[in-house]
Amino acid sequence: MYDKLAFARMAMEDSHLNTDEFFDVVGFFIFYTRLEYALKEAGYLKRNDNGSLKNPPEINLASFSREINKPFFEEWEQVRNEIFYLEDRPPMQRTATVDHEGRYYLDWTPSDDRFKNLPGITSRIEDVRNNLFHGNKIYGDDIERDMTLIRYGLVVMNHCISVCANLQYTNTKAYQVYSNFTKMPSTTATVSQKMW
């Protein structure tokens, strides 16, 4: 058995996160894993070119986003600030480059312009997830911006879930996960006050 508190302290020190930031990162990890579980249970799955389901199963975030695009934007005012922030300051993407001497280095490049609809927005949040899950963002140079992307991504994805009738009503397991999401305290007001 290991000392969980000591491990948490070590992880916070190693990543240079304060306590609030550390728990926001942990919360985002937990939220996103439960979101992926709920989407798989509700049938939002990627398919191969021949139409068969991919195995192991992967979530089809674009399909989910297209389905809820209309209800999402009917009530989008409550996540307006978060969407504008994600549009103005999108997550960067990690790239690897090889120089003329054959040495490689890692760099950041801007996300492509895909912010035209909800699939574009959730794709940017998926970039936040990927950057975080692969360890690129906890050790970055701009922790404040990275934490805002994490918090705002969480708020927007929570709104996505709240307007998804399929996730709420067609699958008991997925609905139980959704119910847990809706019990989360909303961070919108707190985060918005800090940023604006």
Compute the number of structural domains. 1
Strand order of the largest sheet: 1-2
Q: What would you report as the Rg, rounded to the nearest angstrom?
A: 18 Å
Please give the largest β-sheet: 2 strands, antiparallel
Q: Indicate the low-confidence ranges by residue numbers.
A: 185-196
How many distinct beta strands? 2
Termini separation comes to: 44 Å
Count the helices. How many? 9
Quick gist of this model?
This protein has helices at 4-15, 19-41, 61-74, 80-88, 118-133, 143-162, 165-169, 172-182, 188-195, and strands at 93-98, 104-109.
Descriptive report:
There is one protein chain. By secondary structure, the protein is mainly alpha-helical. It has one domain (19-87, 113-195). The chain is 60% helix and 6% strand. The protein has nine helices and two strands. It has helices spanning 4-15, 19-41, 61-74, 80-88, 118-133, 143-162, 165-169, 172-182, 188-195, and strands spanning 93-98, 104-109. Strands 1-2 form a two-stranded antiparallel ribbon. A hairpin with a 5-residue loop joins strand 1 and strand 2 (104-109). Helix 5 crosses helix 6 (143-162). The longest helix is centred in the first third of the chain and has 23 residues, at 19-41. It is globular and about 45 Å long. Mean pLDDT is 80; it is low at 185-196.
Task: List strands and helices in order, with pairings.
Elements: H1 4-15, H2 19-41, H3 61-74, H4 80-88, E1 93-98, E2 104-109, H5 118-133, H6 143-162, H7 165-169, H8 172-182, H9 188-195
Antiparallel strand pairs: 1-2
Helix pairs in contact: 2-6, 2-8, 3-5, 4-6, 5-6
